Amino acid sequence: MTPMTPKTPMAVPVGRPAVTPPPVRFADLVAAEWIKIRSLRSTSWTLALVTLVVIGAAVAAAMADYNNFPGYSPETQREHPFSLHDAFPAAGYMSLMLAAGCVGAVTATGEYGSGLIRTTTVAVPARGAVVAAKAVVTAALWTVVGLSVAACSFAVSQTILSGRDAGITLGHPGAVRALVASALLAPVCALLGLGLGFLIRHSATAMVTTTFTLLMLPMFFSTEKRWSAEVRNMMVDSAWQRLTMDWVPSQADSLIPLHTATLTQSWVAYALWPTAAVALALVLVRRRDV
Amino acid sequence: MPGRGRPSRVEPVIEVNELTKRYGGKTAVDRLSFTVRPGRVTGFLGPNGSGKSTTLRMVLGLDAPTSGTATVGGVPFRAHRRGLHHAGALLDAGHVHGGRTARAHLSALARGNGIGARRVTEVLEEVGLADAARRRVGGFSLGMRQRLGIATALLGDPPVLIFDEPVNGMDPEGVLWVRRLFRRLAAEGRTVFLSSHLMSEMEQTADDLVVIGQGRLITAESVRDFAARGTRLSVTVATPRPAELTAVLTAAGASVEGEGEGGREGAAGAGKLVVTGLPADRIAALAFENGVLLHELTTRAATLEEAFMALTADSVEYLAGGTR
After folding, report:
1. Are B223 and B209 spatial neighbours (Cβ–Cβ below 8 Å)?
2. Under an 8 A CB cutoff, do A1 and B219 touch?
3. Residue to test with chain B: of A24, A112, A122, most B Cβ within 10 A
4. Would you tell me how many other CB atoms lie within 10 Å of the CB of residue A21?
5. What is the ipTM for the molecules in this complex?
6. Over the stretch A40-75, which tens digit does the pLDDT of each residue have?
7. CA distance B111 to B114
8. What CA–CA distance (Å, rounded) separates B184 from B39?
9. Residue A8: its chain B contacts at CB < 8 A?
10. Interface A-B: count of C-beta contacts within 8 A
11. Contact B134, B161 (CB under 8 A)
């Protein structure tokens, strides 16, 4: 069948006066993704809730040491080695990992669940640019959240502990590093979730996978065997634990062999997971049908 | 480079050439070729599952063809970095996030394409959603979502507009509005490509038709030509002696069917016959010559719907009752 040819001459003007499209700017895409995040009520609720949970966990940890303080040995009372740990308790920061990872995942899958991604892709056929813009917004939003949460949980916990003269300042060795690592934990997990969200495209599956990768996977590797410890050291959770330590267990203190990660290794783990997930997403969104 | 500053001087034609899409062993679109021209409304017709939506997704660069090409204004749509100024589309009214307001949904899309807030207000007014702009889309009726989808398509004031089943769920007032809108967009010189599985819808709106079935092109022609094929006249005759008349008419070369269930032409009472192949005056003359009384003699032209049904009968994907 030949392409259709209208039998009657066209009575209407063809080719409207061409409108010059506005310049293509990546910043506009970032702004668009920011509008998308901001316009969902669930965003502010989730952020408020996770902030309260993390700070609450730090308060609880500091209160416990405050209350138990009179029973501690004089050496512990003098050294108060728990201070930094109370600022960044695992319960709170694992919750932060969970929330950031899942919200990151939903930032991607929220487009797929409804088919919105097709509307988005017609508007922006450069699919990689959409992933990149979402990554920028996710990274920025969660860095701000992470920084405020980490700063607050540090300040609140040390204020409580200073009642026992056991508070520390940011001048304490490793304190700034621990604060930065705790703050960056949020964007690291959110970007990992975002990448997995684009790969998996289904909300529930993406959230479970993200949670599993962040919180469960490290438990499958022991610290005792060298190869296993090397793998475990490259996990986000292990890296965060290492970066928030202000003391390093030495081989002499322990009966079992320890393979503690170096700080560099831990920062590399921080960079590796989100970069790999987002890079894989960038490749796959270009290849797959929307 | 496409999408960069310079306005396109190419005619906003949709050109589909030998387009094929296979999913595993199933061929959804099969070597489809057609052209959709500016200044006209072109209907894209086919039964459910005939490959219309798959074709539109390939035209818009969402799905990659297995083979063949689809271009909009001479360029594969995926080559554009931003799309809204080149083509606007409503593929499915459900392609929105229910948690956002209509304005937020449009604002995000507009912003990503460098379109200002004023244009968002304009399109909301254009589609009659100005009052609902601050409501969350999750609470919208299907008709309102269709309007929001049309607003999305109009955002970039594009030369090419593609709508997949746009009138589904619209009230009669909405259907009238949307028809007038499509006519106006075409009159402004835009390319308007409109899919439907209902011929009656196209009859009211389209200038040209692209008809497909099972992923293959059945015909691409103007509505007028398409309608001309369908004007096979039939005549309804009521007579107290249907058997006799049937014999006479059949002898004269007509084909005769009993109307209604069970075909009562053999029964004693009056029967209605549907006669094709002879005009009404010949039937009346034959009845007169043979002394058969007629109670009724009505000529009716086949509708476009019937022409469409006849054309696509062989390619209907899903038949009720599995009687294929």
Report:
1. yes
2. yes
3. A122
4. 24
5. 0.89
6. 999 999 999 999 999 999 999 999 999 999 999 999
7. 5
8. 9
9. 222
10. 191
11. no
